[in-house]
DNA sequence: GACCGACATGGACGCCCGTCGATGCGTGCG
DNA sequence: CGCACGCATCGACGGGCGTCCATGTCGGTC
């Protein structure tokens, strides 16, 4: 279904919520954030990111991770690919091994979102 | 596939990483975090949570959200159910409407995870 | 140059998820 | 009491994701 009014004032007025406003986060920003959350929505990737962050300089090679995580090498490669696509890590080749590094910028965007006040001032309806 | 050694020291020793340790986050904790991230891994739910947080007291009724989000009422109910299952929101019935409230505790756990140092001290291999 | 090891890619399978329409349930109103 | 309304649930459909095996690709080594 297509996107409906986010700034429309009229359809939000009725007997239930006379003065309510439907201010929502822009769709594009919500999709970007959801993409990062999707990249984190797997136990293996949660452990991977924490493992890299706990390494010196946020960098480590992935050579032994399949055995440690209990997954095969293609599956690990798939997870690292998803983390890379989300901008959470980056990898550079050093000889025959690839080292992966945490990119804190993407994490900062997520942190900024999660710092929502949980006690806003907008008066809602009903 | 079943979980393999996380504290095992032996299989992680070879010519590549002589002294490397494979310390990983416990599997259960990673699954719990991943469940919360799964609950956030959708644009509609990202907007929903931000909408609730921007409301007075972190509470709002959901009566007009289907139209604002461009989804049907069953779909909105499905998303709110997932947010509730993840402990991110809770809903109580007031008359014929249901009000949803943000529960900051679940967000705190996620924030604590995302505060990973990105410059750890553990020396990794290769 | 031929082999080997680390990693990426492709294809296949099963499962979960987002979305919908239709329906059921509970509450307030007339 | 019956109707209308807000919300939850059910069943179905399509798409995406995690996982694997098999294979390809690139860099080092001998």
Write the layout of secondary structure elements.
2 copies of one chain form a homodimer.
Chain A: H1 27-40, H2 43-53, E1 59-61, H3 65-69, H4 73-85, E2 89-94, E3 97-102, H5 104-114
Antiparallel strand pairs in A: 1-3, 2-3
Helix pairs in contact in A: 2-4
Chain A binds a DNA duplex (30 and 30 nucleotides) through residues 1, 16, 38, 42, 44, 61-63, 71-82, 93, 95-98.
Note down, in words, how this protein is organized.
Two copies of one chain form a homodimer. With 126 residues, chain A is an alpha+beta fold. Chain A has a single domain, classed as Arc Repressor Mutant, subunit A (Orthogonal Bundle). In chain A, 43% of the residues lie in helices and 12% in strands. Chain A is built from five helices and three strands. A three-stranded antiparallel β-sheet of chain A has the order 1-3-2. In chain A, a hairpin with a 2-residue loop joins strand 2 (89-94) and strand 3 (97-102). In chain A, helix 2 (43-53) packs across helix 4. At the A-B interface, helix 1, helix 2, strand 1, helix 3 and strand 3 of A face helix 1, helix 2, strand 1, helix 3 and strand 3 of B. The first copy, chain A, binds a DNA duplex (30 and 30 nucleotides) through residues 1, 16, 38, 42, 44, 61-63, 71-82, 93, 95-98. Chains A, B: Keywords: DNA-binding, Transcription, Transcription regulation. Chains A, B: It comes from Ornithinimicrobium pekingense. Chains A, B: InterPro entries: ArsR-like_HTH, HTH_ArsR_DNA-bd_dom, HTH_MetalResp_TranReg, WH-like_DNA-bd_sf, WH_DNA-bd_sf. Chains A, B: This is Transcriptional regulator. Chains A, B: Residues 25-125 form the HTH arsR-type domain.
